[in-house]
Amino acid sequence: MGTVVTRVSDLPKESMRERLADLQVLKESIHSGPSEEATARQHAKGKLTVRERLDVLLDSGSFVEVEAFRQHRATGFGLEHRRPYTDGVVAGWGKVYGRDVMVFAHDFRMFGGALGEAHAEKIHKVMDLAEAAGVPLIGLNDGAGARIQEGVTALAGYGGIFRRNVRMSGVIPQINVMLGPCAGGAAYSPALSDFVFMVQNTAQMFITGPDVVKAVTGEEISADDLGGARVHGSVSGVAGFVCPDEVSCLEEVRYLLSLLPANNQELPPSITCTDPANRRNDALLDLVPADPAISYDMSAVIEEIVDDGEFFEFHAGWAQNLICGLARFDGHVTGIVANQPAHLAGVLDIKASEKGARFIQMCDAFNIPLVSLVDVPGFLPGTDQEHGGIIRHGAKLLYAYCAATVPRISMVLRKAYGGAYIVMDSRSIGADLSFAWPTNEIAVMGAEGAANVIFRREIAAADDPVEAHARRVEEYRRQLMHPYYAAERGLVDDVIDPGETRATLTRALGLLRAKQASEPRRKHGNPPM
Predict the structure, then answer these.
(1) Among 29, 174, 243, 441, who pairs with 249 as Cys (CB 3.0-4.6 Å)?
(2) pTM of the predicted model, to two decimals?
(3) Where in this chain does the record put each CoA carboxyltransferase C-terminal domain (predicted)?
(4) 419 catalytically annotated
């Protein structure tokens, strides 16, 4: 590996060839990291080194590093004697499936990956380059927060990152990958980005760590139970993707990038599709029960209708009553939002509303069409939901749909009741096309509930209340809930054979691919928060 050179001034003033040899030695030293012991400690934790991670993430030989010779300028607390090159973050650009991306990656072996002034300026640089070049930005996070020895300059570095996160929001895809600790203010940059990945057992995110929690509240909790991948993947909803190990995580990041445009001025990349666009879906006839009270797995419906059954789900472990993810129809990327009858009967609640709103906004920002598969009995009732702000949170989903200008297609499979029907991209809030299966029930509420409201007194006074209720239920269903009621009033464009679902959606998406939409002039809307 050669002699470790610690200062540029140590380089001998010899011939050009000798200087090139010394440069090579210096670069090899930078590439290998601070010490073999530090690398061994990283591996002992089940973690890859920073450059091993880049080798997995990026196409082979494509990485171009910037500011590898950067050193901090801080003094005090012994920092003047510890000035490693890179300052604990490797930054540059490379390719994923031949397309450019910018990337920064913390090196936990130096200062625990903590952010100081020089460290932050390197991240600022790649963020600015990503914006200028119009390419995705990826952060590989494995750091202990702000470098305390540098004081407020470290905090100011975070401010510069956050400002850029917001400025680039909706302009380029921003992906943060949690591969180790991410504490304090450092957690806000991932929260401001578009996509957050976490690795089980090694990644944690929290504003205040276990020691602070214990000191303030007396509660004892481990770092993993406080802010590990399981917590953020299934409880808080901070992490959209949870992976078992680093290699599989970085491979998932690569796959996500293959579905996204480089920036908001481009369409998502399309591929040649060998799965026939008009392939019938006769399996759906048995997969989805006609009885609206019987559950089924909407994931199986999605896998049946998309190209080759490939579906990339977001937030799979959180708010499972709503499914969100990306797939392709005839090679073209499409966002799918679907109620999940297998979980809470597919109702909308606070978490599902937030999940759907965030996903819809992402798709709209990056020119990804939306398909909504509707089978929703309503919003979840209860004091917890009402006091928790279901009105405000449900309005987020409604606002996101209404504001989206990408192609929007809805497909009502079975029930679609009340306000939840309206919110799930009905024609009345701007869906471009709306289709339904012959099992659809679009109504203010279910027939049983409607009969109880409309004919309450009559049923109560009847000699046989059970018979009277059943008769009125059937009457309401026959008059207002038959499969063609909405179609007769122009609220559904067609009632289709479920076996033609894929062909219908593919043709509709093809028609709308060149859709143009104009918005009123305004600085920005004021969505419910």
Answers:
(1) 243
(2) 0.91
(3) 276-523
(4) yes
